[in-house]
């Protein structure tokens, strides 16, 4: 039953990664948290394990997704190059901070973040037509912020990079493809950070590599790389308004589910 749940989660996460450029972490993290709790993993580390496993799985999903978007010319590699240095530094710093936080505090951060971004997307606030991407310093700072928050909530950065680039008047389909590409450096830095910071932690479940639970990683990543191209194909066929609403509703659902686990 566990394997079937992991496989189903991987299939859904892969579609989300291709469709919305979010890496699938917005679904992977809460689902794994609930599954780990059901199996009586150490409660003080359930969310840390979910975050680490999510980051590691996004390594594989982001590659499959970005390849599909790149073939459609939807990845702005200049933006990727400018944001990546800040993203890597921010992600590593965020993982170190996360290792010293309680699971409940991380849940509160995840819920607040999900609601904030969902509200922003549903209100459909239009940026000024003259607004553009910032210069190198601004891109470095923006990448750092995306990296820190991504490491806190175990995502590939799409829930921040998508509204950031949209606010800077980048076309949405290019935003989604570029966000998928940004998921790789975030996931790489995050996965390494969670492995290193959990390496000496005692009491973790068998088959854990630091804060990465390998059975879940293999199943989720193995299927998500197959479904990510399907999501990418849908992203280029659906209208912009529906993509935004889908993105916002997803965040509201997972945020509410995570919130309910606090009580």
UniProtKB/TrEMBL annotation:
Record key words, sorted: Cell membrane, Membrane, Transmembrane, Transmembrane helix
A cellular component term, taken from the record's GO annotations: plasma membrane
Pfam families linked: TauE
Topology term for the membrane: Multi-pass membrane protein
Subcellular localization: Cell membrane; Membrane
Superkingdom, taxonomy of origin: Bacteria
Transmembrane regions listed in the UniProt entry: 12-39, 45-66, 78-99, 105-125, 137-155, 175-196, 208-226
PANTHER family membership: MEMBRANE TRANSPORTER PROTEIN HI_0806-RELATED
Family listed: Belongs to the 4-toluene sulfonate uptake permease (TSUP) (TC 2.A.102) family.
Protein name: Probable membrane transporter protein
